[in-house]
Amino acid sequence: MTDKDITRLSYDVVVIGAGGAGLRAAIEARLAGKKTAIISKSLFGKAHTVMAEGGAAAAMGNANSNDNWMVHYKDTIRGGKFLNHYRMAELHAKEAPERIWELETYGALFDRTKDGKISQRNFGGHEYPRLAHVGDRTGLELIRTLQQKIVSLQQEDFAESGDYEARLAVFAETTITELMLTDGKVAGAFGYRREDGQFLLFEAPAVVLATGGVGKSFKVTSNSWEYTGDGHALAMRAGANLVNMEFLQFHPTGMVWPPSVKGILVTESVRGDGGVLRNSEGRRFMFDYIPEVFKAQYATTEEEGDRWYTDPDNNKRPPELLPRDEVARAINSEVKAGRGSPHGGVFLDVSTRMKPEVIIKRLPSMHHQFKELADVDITKEPMEVGPTCHYVMGGVEVDPDSTQSAVPGLFAAGEVAGGMHGSNRLGGNSLSDLLVFGKRAGEYAALYVDQTAERPAVAQSDVDAAMAKALTPLVEDAEGGENPYTVQHELQQVMNDLVGIIRRADELEEALVKIAEFKKRLASVRVGGGRKYNPGWHLAIDLHNMVVVSEAIAKAALERTESRGGHTRDDHGKMDPNWRKINLICSVQGDGVSLRRQPVPTMPIELLGLFDRSELAKYLTEDELAAFDESTKDGEKE
Amino acid sequence: MTTRHFRVWRGDDQGGALTDYDVEVNEGEVVLDIVHRLQATQAPDLAVRWNCKAGKCGSCSAEINGKPGLLCMTRMNTFGPDETVTVTPVRTFPVMRDLVTDVSFNYEKAREIPAFAPPADLKPGEYRMQQVDVERSQEFRKCIECFLCQNTCHVIRDHEENKAAFAGPRFFIRAAELDMHPLDARDDRKEFAQEEQGLGFCNITKCCTEVCPEHIKITDNAIIPMKERVVDRKYDPLTWLGRKIFRRDQLESQK
Amino acid sequence: MTTTATTPPRPRAAIAERTLRTDRWWLAPLLTFLGLAGFLVYATVRIFVNDNYWVEEFHYLAPFYSPCLSESCAPGSSHFLGQPFPQLPSWMSPAMLVLALPGGFRATCYYYRKSYYRSFWLSPPACAVPDGHKKYTGETRFPLLIQNVHRYFFYAAVLVGLVLTYDAVISFHGKEGGFGIGLGSLILVVNAVLIWGYTLGCHSCRNIVGGRLTHFSKHPIRYWMWTQVGKLNKRHQLFAWLSMFSVVIADAYVWMVASGAINDLRIFN
Ligand SMILES: Cc1cc2nc3c(=O)[nH]c(=O)nc-3n(C[C@H](O)[C@H](O)[C@H](O)COP(=O)(O)OP(=O)(O)OC[C@H]3O[C@@H](n4cnc5c(N)ncnc54)[C@H](O)[C@@H]3O)c2cc1C
Ligand code: SF4
Ligand code: SF4
Ligand code: FES
Ligand code: FES
Question: Per the UniProt record, which residue ranges are transmembrane (chain C) (predicted)?
Answer without folding.
Answer: 25-49, 91-112, 152-172, 178-198, 238-262
